[in-house]
Amino acid sequence: MEPRIDLFASPTPTQVLKRFANAALALERSTLPKTLRELLQLRVGQINGCGLCVDAHTKEAAAAGETPVRISLVAAWRESTVFTAAERAALALAEEGTRLGDERHGVSDETWAAAREHYDDDQLGTLVCLIAMINAATRMNVMVRNPGGSYQPGTFAAAGSE
Q1: Domain coordinates of the chain in residue numbers?
Q2: Which positions fall inside the Carboxymuconolactone decarboxylase-like domain (predicted)?
Q3: Is 33-160 in CATH node 1.20.1290.10?
Q4: In Å, what is the CA distance from 81 to each residue of 5, 84, 88, 100, 118?
Q5: How many angstroms from the chain centroid is the CA of residue 30?
Q6: pTM of the model
């Protein structure tokens, strides 16, 4: 599978993607654990069918110390016992924030309240930004058909530091 276009080969998309990567660096400095951020991004990648995102965030989660069992079970987190109540609340927020068009309510009051129980305002804001940004990334990758399989951990961090 070959990508339809290399977004880094054109000046305007390159400028946007570099700014996108730099914005993501702020999320790296948040108080949310890296493993949680990676699991959420993995779940959004799964929902949106982004091979590159599933590849990248599986590998980044493992590099951050996440266990293979939890990485494997993120796709079935509701039917799993390996996630904390806080993680479950964040996963629900990520799913509803990704599937906005599937329900009339977008993110339900119940899901928001569950997340509010576990996260402060800065962390909730970080979750909202993280979910929005990974949704944008998955959509770009799916549109241009960027394939998964060759991602190396640390690549995203290096791109944001340029």
Answers
A1: 33-160
A2: 16-96
A3: yes
A4: 41, 8, 10, 26, 18
A5: 14
A6: 0.92
